[in-house]
Amino acid sequence: MSGMSEGQAPAADLVGPAVTESHANTSSGTPEPPPLLGAYPLPPPADALPQPGAAASAQSASPPSPRPQSPSFGAVFAAAPHAMAVVDREGLVVTANDTLGELLGTGTDGLPGKVAADLLDLSSDARTWHAYREVLRGRQARLRCARRLKHPDGHSLWVQVTVTPLPETERAVLLSVSDISARRELQSRLRHLQMHDPMTRLPNRTLFFERLSAALEAESYEESGTGRIGLCYLDLDGFKAVNDTLGHRVGDRLLAAVADRLAHCADEAGHNRATTPLVARLGGDEFALLVEDSTGTDQLAELAESVLKALQAPFDLAGQRLSVSASIGVVERHAAGTTATGLMQAADTTLYWAKADGKSRWTLFDPERNAHRMTRQALSSGLRPAIERGEFALEYQPLVGMEDGRVRGVEALVRWHHPQFGTLTPNRFIGLAEEDGSIVQLGRWVLKTACRQARRWQLERPDEPPIFVSVNVAVRQVWDSDLVADVAGTLSETGLAPRLLQLELTESAVMGSAGRPLQALQALSDMGVRIAIDDFGTGYSNLAYLSRLPVSVLKLDGSFVRGFQYEGSDAHHPNPADEVVVEAMIRLAHRLGLTVTAECVETSAQATRLRRIGCDTGQGWLYSRPVPPDRISELVEAETCGRS
């Protein structure tokens, strides 16, 4: 009879040692063997074994009184309803009762001399085989394990095998076998209920992660297969609206119908392949298709496409005709070095990308995009602590008069000296600071630091015209703080005159100002602070509204200046369209009493044209890159800065 192993014996099945002692005949003082079963001794009854302390009391006690004749141990063994066999130290069956023969379907006569381990499949896994041999050698007190056996009539049965040493003089073990098929069947049914979703009948989250963890164990992929694993992680687009409008009953029916289509896609994908993808419902409207031994991203892409196509057809649910789509995150990689948590995090991130990219699509995991996301998250979480630790610094870029080339002012530009990512420019973190609100705290620091430095330059050159400092302000600073009070307090603390401070806001922020923002800008202007519109020309330029705003400066966006080039190699024939547009904006600004600053001035040719059409100041690498405060002092002392 052959058996199929259940796998390694559970730790609980390998029980601890039990104390056993050999039988002693206290009446004669000479050990005698117990009664024989057939030609082999059987263990003595429990009441015949020496009890603790029996050796000391036997010397003084009187001989025992005669006892009634007990039944033959051989008869008891043969008729026992429990299947048993005696196995010698070599692992061969010495004798067995009829119950064991009936259980195994071999009859009793053919069992003596058989290898017990073969009869009960004790050698199919290393752990059970080792424990069994230790019991045979007398070095382990007991073994208990469950095995799945094949009966000669074709059906399978589960048995619990217990191996216990007999007294040392017997040099044998007692093997007992119990049929636990009914119990295992009940356990299997309960496990199925526990591991499957009752609505969709798909494996649930628990079973999915159990399978995923098993697939990522080294022994699962090292000996065979591709050594790769893939996952399609999806949820339905707009499913909440179905529940909210049509009710949860319709929503549940929709989930069950989606599950059927996913299962069909998995069956199709598994056709003519070694494995079929596991489809599981992870909760809500989230599903996963796990592909073990995947052959590459092409296989996962094909599976994701088939899912999207399968879900495109409308669903007819008890008179309701519904259409639904899904977003899918696809991950495919080597199983080695991958963890279940890491794989699911990558899948969840990729699903988010699919949603953000427009839904009703699948997106493949991109390590570079993920690294950017992780960096963004690291920067976002570290902003507030970085402000407290003093990791930020200011550099300044000159604002130069187009006519004389002298420094009129500077723009303060914040830098983050990050301990991990090095020096970061504002475009790397200002957006994050605006999102989480830390821009208010950072903005206050920039304002105070810039005003303090401007006042220091003024004190260093008391006989020269002072330079102003321009500070960028985010709209959230106006809404989430009292910007007017912050500016007034900073000017009072540093001693800087209001006319030497310029605040820059983006065009979209200023042109759309109303209510509190407009009141704040007006109060700042009344205080004497200059207001500049940054990146002018890139937003919705409501020129009629511009005349009613408390604005004193327009800063032309660098895109105008970068395109402000001569055509070909002839420097005397400018592009008329570019010049007309820029000149019109400058004239309009001057008619409204505003001054104009051109950003991103990089060449002498650009500066010459801007000066000719009336631009007031310029800013860009032609004059200077952003520099530390001490370099600004040197530039201010020079007669001209980048004068063409």
From TrEMBL:
Residues 1-74 are annotated as: Disordered. Residues 31-47 have a biased composition (Pro residues). Residues 69-139 form the PAS domain. Transmembrane segments: none annotated. Residues 227-367 form the GGDEF domain. Residues 376-640 form the EAL domain. Pfam families: EAL, GGDEF, PAS_4. Gene3D superfamilies: 3.30.70.270, EAL domain, PAS domain. Residues 48-62 have a biased composition (Low complexity). PANTHER family: BIOFILM ARCHITECTURE MAINTENANCE PROTEIN MBAA, DIGUANYLATE CYCLASE DGCP. NCBIfam families: GGDEF, sensory_box. This is EAL domain-containing protein.
